Structure prediction request, 437 residues.
Amino acid sequence: MQRSLNTSTHIAVLGGGYAGMAAAVELADAGARVTVFEAGPVLGGRARRVSIDGREIDNGQHLLIGAYSELLGLMRRVGVDPDFAFVRTPLDLAVEPGFRLRAPKLPAPLHLAVALLAARGLSWRERWALIRAMRSAETSRWRLVDDLPVADWLAAQGQPVRLVEAFWRPLTVAALNTPLETASTQVLFNVLRDSLAGSRSASDLLFPRIDFSALFPDAAARHVAASGGEVRLNAAVKLLVRDGDGWLVNGEHFDGVVCALPPHRAGMALGSVDACAPLVAQLAAWDYQPIVTVYLQYPASVTLPQPMVGLAAGVSQWIFDRGQTHDQPGLIAVVLSARGAHSDLSQAQLISAVVAELDTVFAWGEPGWRRVIAEKRATFAATPGLWRPANTTAEPSLWLAGDYTAGDYPATLEGAIRSGQTASRGIIAAFLAGTIL
Ligand SMILES: Cc1cc2nc3c(=O)[nH]c(=O)nc-3n(C[C@H](O)[C@H](O)[C@H](O)COP(=O)(O)OP(=O)(O)OC[C@H]3O[C@@H](n4cnc5c(N)ncnc54)[C@H](O)[C@@H]3O)c2cc1C
Prediction:
């Protein structure tokens, strides 16, 4: 049986994103008194609900996969049923014009073999090249001795240009939010290993039916409150300093701290902690990549053949039909990940370009309501050999959580959740072991 912390052990969680709320749930369940500080008016951070013109949408359209086991487990623990919260489909990647890769309902690894063999829109030469590259990655047990950009690895694997544009580029940019030319092959391998090459259900696509604050953080906050904890909104952390054996957060004493701020803000909060100086300096040098979501309201009759379709040529990358998921008929969300040709366009130019592309492919005409949400620092750039900080710091009562901390995955919701669990379990263990007085 897991031992509990003394309920007088008061731990501050800085940041109410997915990492912070995962840490808060674990800490509350271990018996700690938890206070979450969230700067914004809603929970969720980079995956949150926004209300614009009377509409409830998300700051950015996200996609989850069946491999997100820790997030799904925590959702259940705080009372959100994944069967209700998601439309779940077997892997189905349709990229216009004409590419389609579908996983049949067969046990692994047969599902992948059949999906690759039956991939549509590829010549036999391209299909064989795709199978060869996947086999080569699998034979190396998804490990590279020296990490390298995905574009270089694909060239070494002799991948034809059409296959790269129809499959590898959209997949890499969507999964790593980093252009093919600078994206880490090792991180891509990690994602492929646990999704496409994992169990059949691991590669399932999970399209949320509810907004990203409701999906986990709001329910996590209720769970924490029910255990006597507190979640403070509009409560930006301005100062973190040592206070005897513990910490002062905005002048209030805590026994321990889990810092779950985004990497570009973590440096600011940790700046006054001497032991974190090297970490702060390293984080200051990081590069970030944007994600832009263009929301377009068409008549209710406008719909896609499935919840998500990719476009290989042009600026639009992945198109989501929120009529099929969120009961918002005719509302289309177009996702443009990473820096690219679209980055130089004004919002008006971007909308025009996207609307024209959708009209060419689907003949949808002009939308009514339209809105661009740009997240400039959506994720860190997942480049080859990138150093990522551990969850520990030189201070045993100060731990880091966040999608950027060391882990197999690129910046993802699952990575954020796992980091929150690692950090909270680490600080709990340190208190129980008496490492922290
Ligand atoms: C548009 C977009 C699309 C994405 N698509 C996907 C996807 O399809 N699939 C996927 O898995 N991942 C996706 N991601 C990545 C995913 O959203 C992130 O990896 C994840 O949400 C990061 O969670 P986090 O808790 O580590 O950080 P954050 O969400 O950044 O949480 C940090 C929190 O700290 C708060 N904060 C900041 N400063 C302070 C302060 N001084 N005091 C108190 N609080 C503060 C912030 O408001 C925020 O709530 C996407 C991200 C974006 C932006």
